[in-house]
Amino acid sequence: MQRKTQFYNSILAGDDLRQMFMAGRSYLEMNVATINAMNVFPVPDGDTGTNMLLTLKAIDEELAGLEGVGAGRLAQAMARGTLMGARGNSGVILSQFFHGWAQGLAGVDTFGGREMAQALSRAADAAYKAVSKPVEGTILTVAREAARGAAEAVAADDTTPVAVWELALQAARKALAETPDLLPVLKEAGVVDAGGLGLVAIMEGVRCYLCGEVPAPLVVDVGRVAPTALYLTATEEKEYGYCTQFLLQGSALDVDAVRGRMAAMADSTVVVGNTTAIKVHAHTYDPGPVISYAVSVGSITQVKIDNIDRQHQEFLEGHRERRRELMPLGVVAVAAGEGILQVFRGLGAVDIIPGGQTLNPSVRDIIDHVAQAGAAQVILLPNNPNIVGTAQQAVSVSPKPLHVVPTRSIPQGVAALLAFNPDLDAATNLAQMQKAAAAVRSGEVTRAVRSTSVGGISVRQGDAIAMLDDKLVAATSTSLEALEKLCLDAAPGHGALITLYWGGDTTQPEAEQAADHLRSCCPGVEVEVVHSGQPHYDYLVSIE
Q1: pTM for this one?
Q2: Is 63 a domain residue?
Q3: Kind and range of the H or E element at 416?
Q4: Is-contact 386 366, C-beta < 8 A?
Q5: What are phi and psi of 356, to 5 degrees?
Q6: CA 421, CA 417: separation in Å to the nearest integer?
Q7: Mean pLDDT, rounded, for 346-363
Q8: Contact between residue 405 and residue 331 where contact means Cβ atoms under 8 Å apart
Protein backbone atom coordinates (compact mmCIF):
# COMPACT_ATOMS: atom_id res chain seq x y z
CA MET A 1 0.00 0.00 0.00
CA GLN A 2 1.52 3.31 -1.06
CA ARG A 3 1.92 5.85 1.70
CA LYS A 4 0.06 9.13 1.25
CA THR A 5 2.77 11.75 1.52
CA GLN A 6 4.42 14.34 -0.67
CA PHE A 7 7.87 14.02 0.96
CA TYR A 8 8.27 10.33 1.75
CA ASN A 9 11.51 10.01 -0.22
CA SER A 10 12.50 13.62 -0.58
CA ILE A 11 15.41 15.88 0.21
CA LEU A 12 14.01 19.17 1.44
CA ALA A 13 15.14 22.68 0.45
CA GLY A 14 14.81 26.11 2.01
CA ASP A 15 11.34 26.77 0.63
CA ASP A 16 10.20 23.42 2.06
CA LEU A 17 11.54 24.49 5.46
CA ARG A 18 9.58 27.72 5.20
CA GLN A 19 6.38 25.86 4.35
CA MET A 20 6.92 23.31 7.12
CA PHE A 21 6.96 25.91 9.82
CA MET A 22 4.29 28.09 8.24
CA ALA A 23 2.04 25.01 8.40
CA GLY A 24 3.14 24.48 11.99
CA ARG A 25 2.29 28.07 12.83
CA SER A 26 -1.10 27.81 11.14
CA TYR A 27 -1.95 24.71 13.18
CA LEU A 28 -0.78 26.44 16.35
CA GLU A 29 -3.05 29.36 15.47
CA MET A 30 -5.99 26.98 14.96
CA ASN A 31 -5.50 25.66 18.49
CA VAL A 32 -4.42 28.74 20.45
CA ALA A 33 -7.55 28.68 22.64
CA THR A 34 -6.98 25.03 23.57
CA ILE A 35 -3.35 25.74 24.48
CA ASN A 36 -4.26 28.84 26.48
CA ALA A 37 -6.82 26.77 28.40
CA MET A 38 -3.96 24.65 29.73
CA ASN A 39 -2.28 27.75 31.14
CA VAL A 40 -4.04 27.74 34.51
CA PHE A 41 -1.08 28.26 36.82
CA PRO A 42 -1.10 30.64 39.80
CA VAL A 43 1.69 32.58 38.08
CA PRO A 44 0.54 33.01 34.50
CA ASP A 45 3.07 34.57 32.10
CA GLY A 46 0.25 35.71 29.84
CA ASP A 47 -1.31 33.16 27.49
CA THR A 48 1.18 30.54 26.44
CA GLY A 49 -0.40 29.76 23.08
CA THR A 50 -0.75 33.42 22.16
CA ASN A 51 2.84 34.15 23.18
CA MET A 52 4.15 31.26 21.07
CA LEU A 53 2.04 32.32 18.09
CA LEU A 54 3.19 35.95 18.21
CA THR A 55 6.79 34.77 18.56
CA LEU A 56 6.42 32.74 15.36
CA LYS A 57 4.73 35.61 13.56
CA ALA A 58 7.87 37.67 14.15
CA ILE A 59 9.59 35.42 11.60
CA ASP A 60 7.80 37.13 8.72
CA GLU A 61 9.91 40.28 8.67
CA GLU A 62 13.16 38.29 8.61
CA LEU A 63 11.95 36.03 5.78
CA ALA A 64 10.87 38.86 3.50
CA GLY A 65 12.82 38.66 0.26
CA LEU A 66 14.45 35.30 1.04
CA GLU A 67 12.71 33.24 -1.63
CA GLY A 68 14.79 30.38 -3.00
CA VAL A 69 17.60 30.54 -0.44
CA GLY A 70 19.15 27.48 1.16
CA ALA A 71 17.75 25.80 4.25
CA GLY A 72 20.64 26.86 6.49
CA ARG A 73 20.29 30.54 5.67
CA LEU A 74 16.52 30.41 6.05
CA ALA A 75 16.83 28.69 9.43
CA GLN A 76 19.17 31.46 10.61
CA ALA A 77 16.59 34.08 9.60
CA MET A 78 13.90 32.18 11.48
CA ALA A 79 16.11 32.06 14.57
CA ARG A 80 16.72 35.81 14.47
CA GLY A 81 13.03 36.54 13.91
CA THR A 82 11.91 34.48 16.89
CA LEU A 83 14.64 35.98 19.09
CA MET A 84 13.61 39.55 18.32
CA GLY A 85 9.90 38.79 18.64
CA ALA A 86 9.94 36.38 21.59
CA ARG A 87 7.11 36.97 24.08
CA GLY A 88 6.76 35.41 27.49
CA ASN A 89 8.63 32.48 28.94
CA SER A 90 7.28 30.07 26.33
CA GLY A 91 8.16 32.40 23.46
CA VAL A 92 11.72 32.90 24.69
CA ILE A 93 12.27 29.14 25.00
CA LEU A 94 10.72 28.62 21.56
CA SER A 95 13.12 31.19 20.10
CA GLN A 96 16.03 29.19 21.49
CA PHE A 97 14.57 26.03 19.98
CA PHE A 98 14.81 27.75 16.60
CA HIS A 99 18.34 28.91 17.42
CA GLY A 100 19.40 25.31 17.96
CA TRP A 101 17.53 24.19 14.87
CA ALA A 102 19.49 26.73 12.83
CA GLN A 103 22.75 25.42 14.30
CA GLY A 104 21.78 21.92 13.20
CA LEU A 105 21.21 23.07 9.61
CA ALA A 106 24.13 25.51 9.45
CA GLY A 107 25.82 25.63 6.06
CA VAL A 108 23.40 23.30 4.24
CA ASP A 109 21.12 24.16 1.34
CA THR A 110 19.06 20.96 1.52
CA PHE A 111 18.34 18.44 4.25
CA GLY A 112 16.92 14.99 4.78
CA GLY A 113 15.91 12.91 7.77
CA ARG A 114 19.40 12.67 9.27
CA GLU A 115 19.90 16.43 9.21
CA MET A 116 16.38 16.87 10.58
CA ALA A 117 17.21 14.64 13.55
CA GLN A 118 20.45 16.55 14.14
CA ALA A 119 18.58 19.86 14.06
CA LEU A 120 16.00 18.60 16.57
CA SER A 121 18.80 17.46 18.88
CA ARG A 122 20.52 20.86 18.73
CA ALA A 123 17.16 22.58 19.23
CA ALA A 124 16.43 20.62 22.42
CA ASP A 125 19.94 21.25 23.76
CA ALA A 126 19.65 24.98 23.09
CA ALA A 127 16.25 25.16 24.80
CA TYR A 128 17.64 23.49 27.94
CA LYS A 129 20.67 25.77 27.98
CA ALA A 130 18.44 28.85 27.92
CA VAL A 131 16.84 28.06 31.28
CA SER A 132 18.84 28.64 34.45
CA LYS A 133 17.07 25.84 36.36
CA PRO A 134 15.52 23.43 33.83
CA VAL A 135 12.38 21.68 35.10
CA GLU A 136 11.18 18.35 33.74
CA GLY A 137 7.55 18.05 32.73
CA THR A 138 7.70 21.19 30.59
CA ILE A 139 8.28 22.12 26.94
CA LEU A 140 11.93 21.22 27.56
CA THR A 141 11.04 17.58 28.19
CA VAL A 142 8.81 17.47 25.13
CA ALA A 143 11.59 18.92 22.94
CA ARG A 144 14.18 16.47 24.29
CA GLU A 145 11.94 13.45 23.73
CA ALA A 146 11.10 14.63 20.22
CA ALA A 147 14.83 14.69 19.48
CA ARG A 148 15.20 11.22 20.98
CA GLY A 149 12.41 9.87 18.78
CA ALA A 150 14.08 11.33 15.69
CA ALA A 151 17.42 9.80 16.70
CA GLU A 152 15.79 6.37 17.08
CA ALA A 153 14.42 6.62 13.55
CA VAL A 154 17.90 7.36 12.21
CA ALA A 155 19.41 4.53 14.27
CA ALA A 156 16.88 2.17 12.67
CA ASP A 157 17.98 3.48 9.25
CA ASP A 158 14.53 4.95 8.59
CA THR A 159 15.81 8.32 7.45
CA THR A 160 13.12 9.77 5.22
CA PRO A 161 11.93 13.18 6.46
CA VAL A 162 8.41 11.91 7.10
CA ALA A 163 9.56 8.85 9.06
CA VAL A 164 11.93 10.88 11.22
CA TRP A 165 9.36 13.59 11.91
CA GLU A 166 6.56 11.14 12.68
CA LEU A 167 8.65 9.26 15.24
CA ALA A 168 9.75 12.58 16.75
CA LEU A 169 6.11 13.69 17.03
CA GLN A 170 5.07 10.35 18.48
CA ALA A 171 7.73 10.69 21.20
CA ALA A 172 6.73 14.32 21.81
CA ARG A 173 3.08 13.38 22.26
CA LYS A 174 4.00 10.63 24.72
CA ALA A 175 6.20 13.04 26.69
CA LEU A 176 3.39 15.62 26.75
CA ALA A 177 0.93 13.08 28.16
CA GLU A 178 3.43 12.26 30.92
CA THR A 179 4.11 15.89 31.97
CA PRO A 180 1.59 15.74 34.87
CA ASP A 181 3.51 12.77 36.30
CA LEU A 182 6.77 14.73 36.19
CA LEU A 183 5.47 18.05 37.48
CA PRO A 184 3.02 17.76 40.42
CA VAL A 185 1.63 21.25 39.86
CA LEU A 186 0.26 20.06 36.51
CA LYS A 187 -1.43 17.05 38.08
CA GLU A 188 -2.97 19.24 40.78
CA ALA A 189 -4.28 21.65 38.15
CA GLY A 190 -5.52 18.84 35.91
CA VAL A 191 -3.60 19.90 32.80
CA VAL A 192 -0.66 19.03 30.60
CA ASP A 193 2.14 21.55 30.11
CA ALA A 194 0.90 24.40 27.91
CA GLY A 195 4.28 25.09 26.31
CA GLY A 196 4.75 21.41 25.54
CA LEU A 197 1.28 21.33 23.99
CA GLY A 198 2.20 24.33 21.85
CA LEU A 199 5.32 22.56 20.57
CA VAL A 200 3.30 19.42 19.80
CA ALA A 201 0.80 21.57 17.88
CA ILE A 202 3.59 23.09 15.78
CA MET A 203 5.03 19.63 15.09
CA GLU A 204 1.59 18.27 14.14
CA GLY A 205 1.14 21.08 11.63
CA VAL A 206 4.54 20.26 10.12
CA ARG A 207 3.59 16.58 9.91
CA CYS A 208 0.35 17.39 8.09
CA TYR A 209 2.31 19.48 5.59
CA LEU A 210 4.88 16.74 4.98
CA CYS A 211 2.14 14.14 4.56
CA GLY A 212 -0.21 16.31 2.51
CA GLU A 213 -3.00 15.95 5.07
CA VAL A 214 -5.67 18.35 6.26
CA PRO A 215 -5.22 18.88 10.01
CA ALA A 216 -8.04 18.11 12.42
CA PRO A 217 -8.54 20.14 15.62
CA LEU A 218 -6.11 19.23 18.39
CA VAL A 219 -7.59 16.85 20.96
CA VAL A 220 -6.16 16.88 24.47
CA ASP A 221 -7.56 14.44 27.02
CA VAL A 222 -6.50 15.50 30.51
CA GLY A 223 -9.71 14.65 32.33
CA ARG A 224 -10.33 18.19 33.57
CA VAL A 225 -8.95 21.68 33.03
CA ALA A 226 -9.94 23.33 36.30
CA PRO A 227 -7.66 23.56 39.34
CA THR A 228 -8.64 21.59 42.41
CA ALA A 229 -9.54 23.27 45.68
CA LEU A 230 -6.39 21.75 47.19
CA TYR A 231 -4.30 23.32 44.43
CA LEU A 232 -5.80 26.76 45.06
CA THR A 233 -5.29 26.52 48.81
CA ALA A 234 -1.70 25.35 48.45
CA THR A 235 -0.76 28.32 46.30
CA GLU A 236 -2.78 31.04 48.01
CA GLU A 237 -0.09 32.18 50.45
CA LYS A 238 2.88 32.17 48.06
CA GLU A 239 4.55 35.38 46.91
CA TYR A 240 5.84 35.83 43.40
CA GLY A 241 7.06 39.37 42.72
CA TYR A 242 7.39 40.72 39.18
CA CYS A 243 7.72 39.07 35.77
CA THR A 244 10.40 41.15 34.03
CA GLN A 245 11.14 40.90 30.32
CA PHE A 246 13.28 42.96 27.95
CA LEU A 247 15.55 42.87 24.91
CA LEU A 248 19.19 43.73 25.69
CA GLN A 249 21.23 45.02 22.74
CA GLY A 250 24.88 45.96 22.42
CA SER A 251 28.20 44.76 21.00
CA ALA A 252 30.29 41.83 22.20
CA LEU A 253 27.62 40.79 24.69
CA ASP A 254 28.41 37.66 26.72
CA VAL A 255 25.24 35.52 26.84
CA ASP A 256 26.62 33.09 29.42
CA ALA A 257 27.70 35.93 31.71
CA VAL A 258 24.31 37.61 31.49
CA ARG A 259 22.57 34.27 32.07
CA GLY A 260 24.69 33.61 35.16
CA ARG A 261 24.10 37.07 36.59
CA MET A 262 20.36 36.84 36.00
CA ALA A 263 20.21 33.41 37.64
CA ALA A 264 21.88 34.89 40.73
CA MET A 265 19.48 37.84 40.88
CA ALA A 266 16.10 36.28 39.99
CA ASP A 267 14.06 33.09 39.58
CA SER A 268 12.54 31.41 36.53
CA THR A 269 15.17 33.04 34.34
CA VAL A 270 15.35 32.38 30.63
CA VAL A 271 18.17 34.15 28.80
CA VAL A 272 18.84 33.62 25.09
CA GLY A 273 20.59 35.47 22.30
CA ASN A 274 23.94 36.29 20.77
CA THR A 275 26.68 38.91 20.95
CA THR A 276 24.40 41.72 19.75
CA ALA A 277 20.93 40.90 21.16
CA ILE A 278 19.81 39.00 24.26
CA LYS A 279 16.22 38.28 25.30
CA VAL A 280 15.69 38.12 29.07
CA HIS A 281 12.76 36.73 31.08
CA ALA A 282 12.97 36.64 34.90
CA HIS A 283 10.86 36.63 38.07
CA THR A 284 12.11 38.90 40.84
CA TYR A 285 10.75 40.70 43.91
CA ASP A 286 12.53 43.88 42.80
CA PRO A 287 13.05 44.45 39.05
CA GLY A 288 15.26 47.49 39.72
CA PRO A 289 18.62 45.70 40.12
CA VAL A 290 17.87 43.51 37.12
CA ILE A 291 17.19 46.53 34.92
CA SER A 292 20.19 48.43 36.33
CA TYR A 293 22.54 45.56 35.53
CA ALA A 294 21.14 45.28 32.00
CA VAL A 295 21.67 48.96 31.18
CA SER A 296 25.21 48.71 32.52
CA VAL A 297 26.13 46.28 29.73
CA GLY A 298 23.94 47.55 26.87
CA SER A 299 20.69 49.25 25.93
CA ILE A 300 17.26 47.77 26.60
CA THR A 301 14.00 47.86 24.65
CA GLN A 302 10.70 45.93 24.69
CA VAL A 303 10.58 46.26 28.48
CA LYS A 304 7.56 44.58 30.09
CA ILE A 305 7.10 44.26 33.86
CA ASP A 306 4.01 42.48 35.26
CA ASN A 307 2.98 42.19 38.89
CA ILE A 308 2.72 38.40 39.33
CA ASP A 309 1.16 38.67 42.79
CA ARG A 310 -1.75 40.55 41.23
CA GLN A 311 -1.97 37.94 38.46
CA HIS A 312 -2.07 35.28 41.14
CA GLN A 313 -4.97 36.93 42.93
CA GLU A 314 -6.83 37.29 39.63
CA PHE A 315 -6.16 33.61 39.01
CA LEU A 316 -7.63 32.65 42.39
CA GLU A 317 -10.65 34.90 41.96
CA GLY A 318 -11.25 33.65 38.44
CA HIS A 319 -11.36 30.01 39.54
CA ARG A 320 -13.31 30.28 42.80
CA GLU A 321 -17.09 30.23 42.93
CA ARG A 322 -17.58 33.96 43.26
CA ARG A 323 -18.20 36.86 40.91
CA ARG A 324 -15.19 37.71 38.80
CA GLU A 325 -14.24 41.37 38.59
CA LEU A 326 -14.74 42.82 35.12
CA MET A 327 -11.77 44.05 33.14
CA PRO A 328 -12.06 47.77 32.33
CA LEU A 329 -12.19 47.35 28.54
CA GLY A 330 -12.59 44.32 26.29
CA VAL A 331 -13.27 43.43 22.66
CA VAL A 332 -16.23 41.44 21.33
CA ALA A 333 -16.11 40.22 17.72
CA VAL A 334 -18.68 38.87 15.29
CA ALA A 335 -17.36 35.81 13.48
CA ALA A 336 -18.22 32.39 12.05
CA GLY A 337 -16.07 29.34 11.39
CA GLU A 338 -14.17 27.45 14.08
CA GLY A 339 -10.76 28.53 12.80
CA ILE A 340 -11.80 32.20 12.73
CA LEU A 341 -13.20 31.87 16.24
CA GLN A 342 -9.88 30.42 17.39
CA VAL A 343 -8.02 33.36 15.86
CA PHE A 344 -10.13 35.98 17.64
CA ARG A 345 -10.09 34.11 20.95
CA GLY A 346 -6.36 33.62 20.70
CA LEU A 347 -5.82 37.34 20.14
CA GLY A 348 -7.79 38.20 23.27
CA ALA A 349 -11.45 38.77 22.34
CA VAL A 350 -13.55 38.40 25.51
CA ASP A 351 -16.54 37.05 23.58
CA ILE A 352 -17.57 35.99 20.08
CA ILE A 353 -21.01 36.65 18.58
CA PRO A 354 -21.84 33.98 15.99
CA GLY A 355 -22.50 35.74 12.71
CA GLY A 356 -21.33 36.81 9.29
CA GLN A 357 -22.58 36.39 5.76
CA THR A 358 -26.13 34.90 5.75
CA LEU A 359 -26.05 34.95 9.57
CA ASN A 360 -26.49 38.54 10.73
CA PRO A 361 -27.02 38.94 14.47
CA SER A 362 -29.83 41.17 15.70
CA VAL A 363 -29.53 44.13 18.04
CA ARG A 364 -30.82 41.83 20.80
CA ASP A 365 -28.12 39.24 20.01
CA ILE A 366 -25.45 41.91 20.25
CA ILE A 367 -26.56 43.50 23.52
CA ASP A 368 -27.04 40.06 25.12
CA HIS A 369 -23.41 39.19 24.38
CA VAL A 370 -22.19 42.63 25.44
CA ALA A 371 -24.07 42.32 28.74
CA GLN A 372 -22.41 38.97 29.47
CA ALA A 373 -18.91 39.96 28.31
CA GLY A 374 -16.30 40.12 31.06
CA ALA A 375 -15.56 43.82 30.58
CA ALA A 376 -17.00 47.04 31.99
CA GLN A 377 -16.79 48.68 28.54
CA VAL A 378 -16.86 46.87 25.20
CA ILE A 379 -15.43 47.59 21.76
CA LEU A 380 -17.39 45.69 19.11
CA LEU A 381 -15.96 44.47 15.80
CA PRO A 382 -18.88 43.68 13.42
CA ASN A 383 -16.56 42.37 10.65
CA ASN A 384 -19.24 42.53 7.96
CA PRO A 385 -20.83 45.47 6.11
CA ASN A 386 -24.30 44.06 6.76
CA ILE A 387 -23.70 44.10 10.51
CA VAL A 388 -22.13 47.55 10.95
CA GLY A 389 -25.49 49.35 11.04
CA THR A 390 -26.96 46.90 13.53
CA ALA A 391 -23.89 47.26 15.74
CA GLN A 392 -24.16 51.05 15.71
CA GLN A 393 -27.85 50.82 16.56
CA ALA A 394 -27.01 48.60 19.54
CA VAL A 395 -24.90 51.38 21.06
CA SER A 396 -27.94 53.37 22.18
CA VAL A 397 -29.59 50.43 23.97
CA SER A 398 -26.54 48.64 25.34
CA PRO A 399 -26.58 47.91 29.10
CA LYS A 400 -22.94 49.04 29.37
CA PRO A 401 -20.77 51.48 27.40
CA LEU A 402 -20.41 50.09 23.87
CA HIS A 403 -18.13 51.40 21.12
CA VAL A 404 -18.00 50.19 17.53
CA VAL A 405 -15.00 49.95 15.23
CA PRO A 406 -16.86 49.60 11.90
CA THR A 407 -14.82 46.71 10.51
CA ARG A 408 -16.30 45.37 7.29
CA SER A 409 -14.36 42.11 7.02
CA ILE A 410 -12.60 39.46 9.05
CA PRO A 411 -9.13 40.70 7.97
CA GLN A 412 -10.00 44.20 9.17
CA GLY A 413 -11.24 42.74 12.44
CA VAL A 414 -8.02 40.78 12.99
CA ALA A 415 -5.93 43.88 12.28
CA ALA A 416 -8.03 45.97 14.66
CA LEU A 417 -7.77 43.41 17.47
CA LEU A 418 -3.99 43.19 17.04
CA ALA A 419 -3.90 46.97 17.63
CA PHE A 420 -5.98 46.74 20.83
CA ASN A 421 -4.17 47.64 24.06
CA PRO A 422 -6.15 46.90 27.26
CA ASP A 423 -3.96 49.33 29.21
CA LEU A 424 -5.20 52.31 27.16
CA ASP A 425 -8.58 54.04 27.32
CA ALA A 426 -11.44 53.46 24.90
CA ALA A 427 -10.90 56.63 22.84
CA THR A 428 -7.22 55.88 22.23
CA ASN A 429 -7.97 52.28 21.35
CA LEU A 430 -10.75 53.27 18.95
CA ALA A 431 -8.37 55.56 17.06
CA GLN A 432 -5.61 52.95 16.91
CA MET A 433 -7.92 50.12 15.91
CA GLN A 434 -9.66 52.12 13.19
CA LYS A 435 -6.28 53.11 11.77
CA ALA A 436 -5.09 49.50 11.78
CA ALA A 437 -8.29 48.26 10.12
CA ALA A 438 -8.06 50.93 7.42
CA ALA A 439 -4.53 49.83 6.52
CA VAL A 440 -5.72 46.35 5.50
CA ARG A 441 -7.21 45.49 2.12
CA SER A 442 -9.79 42.72 2.25
CA GLY A 443 -10.67 40.16 -0.37
CA GLU A 444 -13.10 37.28 -0.71
CA VAL A 445 -13.34 34.34 -3.09
CA THR A 446 -16.65 32.50 -3.27
CA ARG A 447 -19.11 31.01 -5.79
CA ALA A 448 -21.80 32.98 -7.60
CA VAL A 449 -25.31 31.86 -6.66
CA ARG A 450 -26.86 33.36 -9.80
CA SER A 451 -25.94 34.81 -13.18
CA THR A 452 -25.63 38.58 -13.46
CA SER A 453 -23.41 41.41 -14.64
CA VAL A 454 -21.69 43.80 -12.24
CA GLY A 455 -19.48 46.69 -13.24
CA GLY A 456 -19.02 45.29 -16.73
CA ILE A 457 -18.05 41.81 -15.47
CA SER A 458 -20.34 39.01 -16.60
CA VAL A 459 -21.00 36.39 -13.95
CA ARG A 460 -22.50 32.94 -14.49
CA GLN A 461 -24.06 30.90 -11.73
CA GLY A 462 -21.36 28.69 -10.21
CA ASP A 463 -18.44 30.94 -11.26
CA ALA A 464 -15.64 31.57 -8.80
CA ILE A 465 -15.90 35.27 -8.03
CA ALA A 466 -13.43 37.57 -6.29
CA MET A 467 -14.27 40.71 -4.34
CA LEU A 468 -11.62 43.26 -3.35
CA ASP A 469 -12.72 45.88 -0.82
CA ASP A 470 -16.38 45.15 -1.66
CA LYS A 471 -15.78 45.52 -5.42
CA LEU A 472 -16.18 42.62 -7.86
CA VAL A 473 -12.86 42.15 -9.67
CA ALA A 474 -13.11 38.69 -11.25
CA ALA A 475 -15.44 35.92 -12.33
CA THR A 476 -13.56 32.80 -13.40
CA SER A 477 -13.93 29.04 -13.59
CA THR A 478 -11.66 28.25 -10.62
CA SER A 479 -11.03 29.71 -7.19
CA LEU A 480 -7.29 29.83 -7.88
CA GLU A 481 -7.79 32.02 -10.96
CA ALA A 482 -10.11 34.33 -9.02
CA LEU A 483 -7.63 34.53 -6.15
CA GLU A 484 -4.76 35.39 -8.50
CA LYS A 485 -6.78 38.16 -10.15
CA LEU A 486 -7.76 39.55 -6.76
CA CYS A 487 -4.17 39.73 -5.55
CA LEU A 488 -2.83 41.17 -8.79
CA ASP A 489 -5.51 43.87 -8.70
CA ALA A 490 -4.48 44.73 -5.14
CA ALA A 491 -0.88 45.21 -6.41
CA PRO A 492 0.85 44.44 -3.09
CA GLY A 493 4.30 46.00 -2.77
CA HIS A 494 7.55 44.22 -1.99
CA GLY A 495 7.48 42.93 1.59
CA ALA A 496 3.67 42.96 1.82
CA LEU A 497 1.89 40.16 3.67
CA ILE A 498 -1.01 38.22 2.17
CA THR A 499 -2.93 35.99 4.60
CA LEU A 500 -5.23 33.35 3.12
CA TYR A 501 -7.96 32.28 5.53
CA TRP A 502 -9.19 29.14 3.81
CA GLY A 503 -12.58 27.57 4.34
CA GLY A 504 -15.68 26.70 2.34
CA ASP A 505 -14.88 23.78 0.02
CA THR A 506 -11.12 24.42 0.03
CA THR A 507 -8.69 21.81 1.38
CA GLN A 508 -5.34 22.51 2.99
CA PRO A 509 -3.32 21.12 0.03
CA GLU A 510 -5.29 23.42 -2.26
CA ALA A 511 -4.64 26.36 0.03
CA GLU A 512 -0.91 25.59 0.19
CA GLN A 513 -0.81 25.27 -3.60
CA ALA A 514 -2.60 28.62 -3.91
CA ALA A 515 -0.05 30.21 -1.57
CA ASP A 516 2.84 28.87 -3.66
CA HIS A 517 1.16 30.21 -6.81
CA LEU A 518 0.76 33.67 -5.30
CA ARG A 519 4.41 33.73 -4.26
CA SER A 520 5.40 33.10 -7.86
CA CYS A 521 3.08 35.69 -9.40
CA CYS A 522 3.66 38.32 -6.67
CA PRO A 523 7.46 38.25 -6.13
CA GLY A 524 8.71 39.59 -2.81
CA VAL A 525 5.37 39.10 -1.09
CA GLU A 526 4.95 36.90 2.00
CA VAL A 527 1.95 34.55 1.89
CA GLU A 528 0.55 32.99 5.06
CA VAL A 529 -2.08 30.24 5.20
CA VAL A 530 -4.57 29.95 8.08
CA HIS A 531 -7.38 27.42 8.38
CA SER A 532 -10.50 29.34 9.27
CA GLY A 533 -13.39 26.99 8.56
CA GLN A 534 -15.68 29.80 7.50
CA PRO A 535 -18.75 28.76 5.47
CA HIS A 536 -19.50 30.05 1.97
CA TYR A 537 -16.04 31.47 1.19
CA ASP A 538 -13.14 29.47 -0.24
CA TYR A 539 -10.81 32.27 0.82
CA LEU A 540 -10.92 35.38 2.94
CA VAL A 541 -7.86 37.42 2.01
CA SER A 542 -5.95 39.96 4.06
CA ILE A 543 -3.41 42.17 2.24
CA GLU A 544 -1.22 44.48 4.35
Answers
A1: 0.51
A2: yes
A3: helix 410-418
A4: no
A5: 155, -150
A6: 9
A7: 77
A8: no
